[in-house]
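User: Assemble these into one structure.

Assistant: Restating your components, then the assembled model:
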Amino acid sequence: MITTIIYTIVCLVALGLLFSVVLYLVAQKFKVEEDPRVDIIESLLPGANCGGCGLAGCRAFAEEVVKAPAIGSLFCPVGGDATLEKIAAALGQEAVKTEPRVAVIKCHGTLDNRAKTNIFDGYASCKVMASLYSGDTGCKYGCLGKGDCVAVCKFDAIHIDERRGIVEVDEEKCVACGLCVSACPKSIIELRPRGPKNRRVYVSCSSKDKGAIARKACSVSCIGCGKCAKVCAFDAITIENNLAYIDPSKCKLCRKCFDECPTKAIWAVNFPIKVPVAPRQEEGQSPIVNNES
Amino acid sequence: MKRTFSIGGIHPKENKFSRDAQIETFPLPYVAYISMAQHLGAPAEPVVQKGDKVKVGQVIGKPTGFISSFVHSSVSGTVTAVEPKGDLAGIPVMHVVIAVEGDEWCEEIDRSKGIVREIPFSAEEILEKIKNGGVVGLGGAAFPTHIKLNPPKDKKAEWLIINGTECEPYITSDDRIMRERPDEIAIGAAIMMKALNVEKCYIGIEENKPEAIISIIKAASSHPGMKVVVLDKKYPQGGEKQLIEALTGRRVPSLALPIEVGAVVQNVGTSLAVYEAVQKNKPLIDNVITVTGSCVPLQRNFLVRIGTPFSKMLDAIGGLPKDAAKFVSGGPMMGKAVANSEASTLKATSAFLLLTEAETKRKEESNCIRCGKCINACPMGLEPYLLNKLSRIGGMYDELEKEKIHDCIECGCCLYSCPAHIPLLDIIRVSKAEVMNIMRNRSVKH
């Protein structure tokens, strides 16, 4: 009885030793040379594997950073500058400062502003809806409100406001990874610089329809009237296909265009609320959103 | 046993309410909105301008590419605008808008009632006449007929197949034309046989249309090589590949055209349009449209001029029925919902269907229970549950291609048979478009 147990133990130990030697030799033979810095850098990254950098995940980013001659071309939108500085320090390079960005929705066709013309009863997905027809409102460019962007967001930073029927970005959570931008079949999400003190001015509309048609479909649409472009002192606004675009690199946040816009399609966010301009506030729907409070 | 295709298929309720309603001529619209994209391929280019006077049958759009077609005016009057307007899905398409004045036809169109039986034209002349008549496939896809009748030189057609199955529920327009105009359809088929230089022609009709079968058999008896085949009732028998298999026993390979197995399929409506274009010089300016639905008080079949707004058709049935909730252009299985009531009829519009809320309401989706009903139902032998699953993961395009998602004919059998009410087709259709796009880009590169 006892000898059987001893034999068993001896046999197993002998086999274990034999296999460990074989495994060691095989491991030596097929060893993959890897830069030890990859592991270090991966540990510095946020580990969200969101793909916001354009690569397959954090590991791929780390491998790419180690290979690249300078970090300049690579950027982790989640970690931002703080992470990049750490990476640069680990690699002994100079960090390149980038402007932090945030996703903005270029549509404000809420239920109050944009009446429904039909009911979509198919599968609740913007992609499916966009493949079938122009949408359940008179505007064929705006938000479909089925939440493909919400489904892809890994940071819980974008939500559908059911009551108003539109998506909204939680700018504190948004890391500008760009997943929502590529998920939106109507391409109404743009990554814009956050701006000083999170203050920014942008056109919250994507309609390329002519003024009368756009206005009929949605009361806060850009009608391409060009008043904003005329009033802008910095040439930051261009009108193309009946739609204004504010170049964030030229915009000085003076908000003249915001005051001028007849349809309130231009938004100015996170500015302190202006006191004297009465008529805008009276309408109750002031697009000034104060997120700082 | 009657013939049918071997894989999959379903038996939806027929609901052919309007099958005994004679074809009536629909009153002329006050304004006709004629779309320039009524066919598969490149849209036609308008050749008229605002203020021009046009007659019925006059060319108002000319083809812009190889796969394209002429568009003719279906009414006489003055062109009031040439501008993009929303189609039935609300997507802007170039339209010619004509304010109707009287009903003046082009002189060369033979409007007499008599049937012209002699076919004095050569194959080239026939193709030219079909092309100039703007004839497209009226089965649904609206593929230009002259291209389909002119297969590549190295491929030889053996059969012409005339599709009179009308397997979609509700629609009766093909049934009616087969009952009322069988001789014209048979002559149209004979013209196409001559153009293709084939000896054999099958006309496939489902067994639920006995009157049509009898009248077509009578009409076809005077044409050598033409044979009427009665088919078992099964959806989607009218699908090109399914019909070829049911009639010839040959299966069209994946990604191949029917000509690979020697078949050319045309719809009975197309056959009638070919007859009119070749024998009567009448271009495709009107078609028979079924106006139906359980909530419609009077089920009708109308001969409607192309470009008549859908809203006008609502007037014809006595206004909007109280419980109508959804308009569909085409049948309930493959038709498209009309999101824009200002849209107008196209060449390939076969029905205007009104559904009530109870009929259209989707049941809530639950989890897949792996019952395999969708696999049993799929007429292309695909695995819809798997395609759905892969599509929902996102980015699995290689796997989807391996599972032959591009073979999907979007017939909706999977969705119809799913006990969990999973929107299989909605999801598969989107990934199919993406996979086909990838495949196209790849073939361009190579």
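The longest strand of chain B covers residues 77-86.
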